[in-house]
Amino acid sequence: MLTNPRAERVRSVRALGRRSSRERAGRFVAEGPQAVREVLAFRPETVVDLYVDPQVGDRRTDILALAHQHDVRVHECSPEVIAAMGDTGQPQGLVAVCRPVDVDLAAALAGAPRLVVVLTNVRDPGNAGTVIRAADAVGADAVLVSDASVDIYNPKVVRSTVGSLWHLPVVRGESVETLLHACRQVGLRTLAADGSGDQLLPDTDVRRPHAWVMGNEAWGLEPAVRDACDEVVRVPIYGHAESLNLAMAATVCLYASAQVMRRGE
Amino acid sequence: MLTNPRAERVRSVRALGRRSSRERAGRFVAEGPQAVREVLAFRPETVVDLYVDPQVGDRRTDILALAHQHDVRVHECSPEVIAAMGDTGQPQGLVAVCRPVDVDLAAALAGAPRLVVVLTNVRDPGNAGTVIRAADAVGADAVLVSDASVDIYNPKVVRSTVGSLWHLPVVRGESVETLLHACRQVGLRTLAADGSGDQLLPDTDVRRPHAWVMGNEAWGLEPAVRDACDEVVRVPIYGHAESLNLAMAATVCLYASAQVMRRGE
Questions:
Q1: Sign of CA dihedral A215, A220, A221, A222
Q2: Which residues in chain B touch residue A168, judged by CB atoms under 8 angstroms apart?
Q3: Could you tell me which residues are beta bridge partners of residue B210?
Q4: Closest to B174 (Cα-Cα) out of B112, B123, B102
Q5: Which residue, A31, A45, B28, B68, shows the most beta carbons closer than 10 Å to its own?
Q6: Residues 6 or more apart from A238 whose CB is under 8 A from it?
């Protein structure tokens, strides 16, 4: 039982809240029952250590059963240790230290993808995570996150994906130019989602395979990226709202695609 | 120039962060340039006092011009005073003390509404505010917030609406039963949005006037409310995501409605 919140091991888990520590260690953290259950259910081979408050573990026997089934090392910890490891005020008794799950660009786009999301210059962790969740919800084939975006292993991104990080291929570390080029190479049309577009979403042909390209939450897409896309599409605003936030716009675009592409399935 | 963060006036503005103080005073607070600009542009008669850090005011001449045009009392304050008044760590130099803008249920539903949102048991301020923003974006006729929901004048709700609170009629303080009854009386079909529904959103007829009924972010709609609605509609999940969050689900449903209802306009 780990009981010392100042122990070296506890500090090293906590340090994974920082990008530099994550990159040095090649590890990141999943916190709370939902994230921990999803990583154990979908990518158990990436879980290095699972830290559990026994009182929580007693109520989450499904999660501990998964961990044992996959021979994950489980460490019992006091609530203080779990709290000291975590990024949130509410670590909820479970912390998993995980290996990265991002895949090569070529691997992500193998198998004739039909619906892909490209994120570039997205800085807000909650928005980035929610877009990954939306991509998962519509059954997208991959999410490609450019090198100029928030780290997908930031604890707030991981939390906002609510497990979707482990459900579909995610690519990171490539430039947006490389990502757009790769999309075109596999026959995906590139649709920039941008408030400046003069083509409305309901007028956009989303029957053919395509990639939605989404930019920064405050200032949208860079002009060069917008110009490089096949179409620039705007979600219509019918009322007085100035805009939608990135997660809302992405969700609307992705559902518009999925509902057309899946019609008749 | 107000410079004492501990002055009685400053404390009384800060107190408006609490629901009990808001209800006693009949006032609430809008913080930051975007919210303050929207209330001055759309409902200037409801602004009681505007507190401004002069350094910010010098850059936001459009906002001060609106305030002067509508004879709003403007008080210059030190940055410390503005910070002491606000709910956020980032008050951004502008705080408006406002009168409520909610309207009577009968007034909100006058004029043959075609698209309405009913929120019941919604507790998370960010979700509630984002749904009001989405309702505004699609040009909905009203948002009806049941008495068992978060206060729409909670500073986090106000902030999440990004000004939409002043763009369309919002009702509060009525029971969900009263809200549903009133919707039916004016010819609105009631569509419960709930993950338990066996009718999928793409199969739902949204051409006729209707109200989307949305429940709690964690546990959805109460069975009695669901049963009282004409249809129970589920947003399809095509991938492995367990669910959408409330704001995402509401945005998808509202855009599905708006894009069908507005086709051919």
A1: negative
A2: 239-240
A3: B115, B189
A4: B102
A5: B28
A6: B137, B138, B139, B258, B262
CB distance B137–A238 less than 8 Å?
yes
Residues of A in contact with B202 (CB under 8 A): 259, 263
d(CA B28, CA B170): 15
- Cα separation values, A139 from A132, A151, A264, B198, B202, Å: 11, 22, 16, 19, 16
Q: For an interface test with B, which of A116, A131, A164, A255 has the most B Cβ atoms less than 10 Å from its Cβ?
A: A255
What does DSSP assign to residue A73? E
On the 0-12 / 13-18 / 19+ scale of CB atoms within 10 A, B229 is buried
Mean pLDDT confidence for A74-93? 87
- Burial (0-12, 13-18, 19+ Cβ within 10 Å), B15: middle
Question: Is ipTM beyond 0.95?
Answer: no
Asked if A68 and A40 touch (Cβ cutoff 8 Å), the reply is: no
B255 vs A252: CB contact, 8 Å cut-off?
yes
Q: How far apart are CA B133 and CA B146, in angstroms?
A: 17
Report the residue from B138, B163, B244 with minimal CB separation from A238. B138
Residues near B77 by beta carbon (within 8 Å), at least 6 away in sequence: B1, B2, B3, B51, B52, B53, B85
Q: How far is A257 from chain B (nearest CA, A)?
A: 12
Please, where are the H alpha helices in chain B?
8-14, 19-25, 32-42, 54-59, 61-69, 79-85, 105-108, 125-137, 155-161, 176-185, 223-228, 246-261
Structure token digits, residue A95: 């912390």
For B141, nearest residue in chain A (alpha carbons) = A239
Q: Report the candidate in B204, B200, B222 with the shortest Cα–Cα distance to residue B213.
A: B222
What is the tens place of the pLDDT at every residue in B156-191? 999 999 999 999 999 999 999 999 999 999 999 999
Structural domains in chain B, CATH included, are 8-98 (3.30.1330.30), 105-261 (3.40.1280.10)
C-alpha span between A127 and A134 (Å, rounded): 10
Q: Which of B251, B258, B262 sits opposite A248 (nearest CB)?
A: B251
Residue B4 contacts by C-beta under 8 Å, 6 or more apart in sequence? B10, B81
Structural tokens at position A94: 């479970």
> Does residue A87 surpass a pLDDT of 90?
no
The helix-helix angle for A125-137 and A246-261 (nearest 10°) equals 10
Average pLDDT, stretch A194-204? 93
Min Cα–Cα distance to chain B from A202, Å: 7
